[in-house]
Amino acid sequence: SFRPAARLGRIKPSPSTAAAARVRELKAAGRRILDLTVGEPDFDTPERIKEAAIAAIRAGETKYTPVNGTPRLRQAIRGSLQRTHGIEYSDAEITVGGGGKQVIFLALMATVDVGDDVLIPAPYWVSYPDMVRANEGTPVIVPTTAESGYKLTPEQLEAAITDRTTWLILNSPGNPSGAIYTAEELSALADVLRRHPGVSVLSDEIYSEISFTGSPAPSLAAVAPDLRHRVLVVSGVSKSYAMTGWRLGYAAGDSALIGAINTLQSQTSSCPSSISQAAAAAALQGPQDFIAESVPVYRARRDAAVAGLAAIDGVTPLVPDGAFYLYVDCAGLIGRSTPDDRILENDQDVTLYLLDHVGVAVIQGSAYGQSPFFRISFATDIDTITEAIDAIAEAVGALR
Ligand code: PLP
């Protein structure tokens, strides 16, 4: 019979996957659900990228590739990092994997030992703490505040570092906050990091191009070039190019760490799909018109959602500078009662109430390590978003 390993007991299935499953179930049972849980673009993968994949299949690019990716893809990744951040990486400083998610997992697996601490500012992407636990490290959660825009401050970083700290995970633009660290803020964090040579930074930049500030989110690797060898930049094509199902992510960093990731990759999946690699190379190398067209669409949805939420008493949206999420403070709803006399004790209750009462699916802040909040995704059409916000207003209006 099935006997789970100890490491399985340390982790749980991703809450976002669980939310998606709940929405599917309710829909299958015939309920109309306004789904704001999705963590993927509603756009289709651009035609040009699909054509590149089809051409690769026809050309027989259907075999194993090098563990660290095809030379063409590595070249395209280097070009993209040079274009967005002005950083020159060598070929040996690049690797690829089945999504940014797999690359992050392998990076932690390659470096985290029992007793190592990994600093994770909250609110955080749901997978970081469990990935650390799966690799027998200890996630150390550092809560952030509204005053700093839900970003880690240099004082907090200094106070959190101990001699067990191996990594700081920085995610900018952040999921779920949409917060972008400015170059000045990164520079101030770099000053602290210079005093602690044992700490490396996993810089998750998967949303870097989905930025409403007019330029891509800055990277610590570019802001503090002297720390470059301690920064692992992780990114991918899922979000920027609407390619979640292609499963292609990448990392750039110190060649010794990249080599270690390659060793693990050689014993896990050998390499990501050759076809996805061809598509990703086309995405990163060709004209960047899809990003230029999609970002203003996300921005318009963000503005509509923020305006709608701001008019609702008891909820406070945090205006995101990037990504496609809104993290909504719902402290004003806690303690109030629903029409059927249940008291909303926490953000999980708020989420369940919105789902039950008006069929709006969002994800509770507790999944992201900071409560009471809920996360709305605006990677869905504007009609669904406005209808859902109206429904939230109605549900909140029915509370006592
Ligand atoms: N990092 C963050 C912050 C994310 O939100 C996601 C996806 O939801 C990922 C990484 C992983 O994306 P992928 O594995 O599709 O590249």
TrEMBL record:
> Matching InterPro entries, A to Z?
Aminotransferase_I/II_large (IPR004839), AspAT/PAT-like (IPR050596), NHTrfase_class1_PyrdxlP-BS (IPR004838), PyrdxlP-dep_Trfase (IPR015424), PyrdxlP-dep_Trfase_major (IPR015421), PyrdxlP-dep_Trfase_small (IPR015422)
Cofactor(s) required for function per UniProt: pyridoxal 5'-phosphate
What does the record give as EC number? 2.6.1.-
Classification via Pfam families: Aminotran_1_2
> Could you name the domain of life of the organism this protein comes from?
Bacteria
- What's an example of a GO molecular-function annotation for this chain? L-aspartate:2-oxoglutarate aminotransferase activity
Entry keywords, A to Z: Aminotransferase, Pyridoxal phosphate, Transferase
List every stretch annotated Disordered. 1-15
- Residues forming the Aminotransferase class I/classII large domain are 33-392
Matching entries from PANTHER family are given as: ASPARTATE AMINOTRANSFERASE (PTHR46383)
Query: What does the similarity note say?
Result: Belongs to the class-I pyridoxal-phosphate-dependent aminotransferase family.
Its recorded name reads Aminotransferase
List the source organism.
Answer: Microbacterium capsulatum
| Taxonomic placement | Bacteria, Bacillati, Actinomycetota, Actinomycetes, Micrococcales
